[in-house]
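Appendix C: a fully annotated inverse folding record. The material below is reproduced so that readers can follow the format used throughout the book. The structure is listed first as tokens, followed by the designed sequence.
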């Protein structure tokens, strides 16, 4: 039986691991052809992973784009794994040309390139931040998204339909704790809003989407658990009770891509948990976690809401 996205073509930029992998697999689950791109490949020489390396340090991590493509195939879609550096415009232009040559269309673009957890300097005031790290964060987490959208959007505009999804962290505009991280994550929301304004007359939607507390490969490793034993981590962090797998935000993207009325959601930021309520999907384990409801009950959630209200009061609802 054909899935709701059978015949559709998607590009997930940053599909090697985490949310990107979950999104690619969920799109495959819905029957799509998914181009899975990133820098970690079986075909490239990869450094040895130091035994004391942080789980959030990408060098030497085991996940590859080819593995993601295989997971897409196993889920029922068609997966194509390609090694692409999305900060390199020449590579991105060639990628989009290949998609056009192979399929003549691109229905969904998901911008999830990040790879900056190890570069983020938490607890450091901005006047002491490492500017080289900050520049890399902006290039990887924001400029790469704009480069990819700039080249991919033309295919969608020509077809008069399509969806661009900016993956971010958080659905509010309150401060995210350190300047460059804040700029990248709120910048993705603003980029979606700006692109939506220009794409709307052409029938193409652009929006931002956040997962909740994500049980990514690195997060599981950080707590010394697996997807099968993740509940053991609750003893170390109660937030794990309300965590979600990368497939949850992936199913949010698949539901958006299958929604004939997705233009009504264009220009805004959405969350995995509110889209689960709207579209009726569940996580890979059948649960329907609601990180937003949990966070709202916490002191950090109340502080975030207050900061968000101050932001809107200062800059208006269209900020």
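Designed amino acids, in order:
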């Amino acid at each position: 039986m054909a899935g709701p996205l059978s015949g559709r073509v998607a590009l997930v930029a940053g599909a090697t691991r985490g949310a990107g992998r979950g999104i690619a697999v969920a799109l495959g689950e819905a029957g799509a052809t998914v181009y899975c791109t990133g820098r970690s490949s079986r075909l490239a020489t990869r450094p040895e992973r130091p035994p004391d390396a942080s789980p959030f340090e990408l060098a030497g991590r085991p996940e590859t784009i080819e593995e993601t493509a295989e997971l897409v195939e196993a889920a029922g879609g068609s997966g194509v794994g390609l090694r692409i550096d999305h900060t390199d415009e020449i590579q991105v232009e060639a990628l989009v040309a290949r998609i056009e040559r192979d399929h003549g269309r691109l229905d969904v673009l998901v911008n999830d390139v990040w790879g900056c957890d190890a570069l983020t300097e938490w607890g450091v005031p901005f006047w002491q931040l490492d500017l080289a790290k900050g520049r890399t964060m902006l290039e990887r987490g924001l400029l790469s998204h704009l480069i990819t959208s700039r080249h991919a959007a033309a295919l969608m505009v020509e077809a008069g339909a399509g969806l661009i999804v900016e993956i971010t962290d958080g659905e509010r505009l309150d401060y995210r704790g350190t300047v460059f991280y804040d700029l990248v994550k709120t910048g993705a929301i603003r980029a979606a809003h700006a692109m939506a304004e220009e794409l709307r007359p052409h029938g193409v939607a652009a929006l931002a989407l956040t997962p909740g507390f994500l049980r990514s490969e690195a997060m599981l490793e950080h707590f010394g658990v697996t997807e099968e034993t993740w509940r053991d981590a609750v003893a170390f962090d109660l937030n794990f009770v309300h965590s979600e797998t990368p497939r949850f935000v992936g199913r949010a993207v698949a539901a958006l891509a299958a929604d004939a009325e997705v233009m009504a959601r264009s220009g805004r930021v959405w969350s995995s948990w509110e889209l689960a309520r709207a579209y009726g999907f569940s996580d890979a384990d059948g649960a329907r976690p609601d990180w937003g409801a949990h966070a709202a009950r916490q002191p950090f959630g109340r502080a975030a809401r207050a900061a968000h209200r101050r932001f809107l009061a200062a800059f208006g609802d269209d900020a």
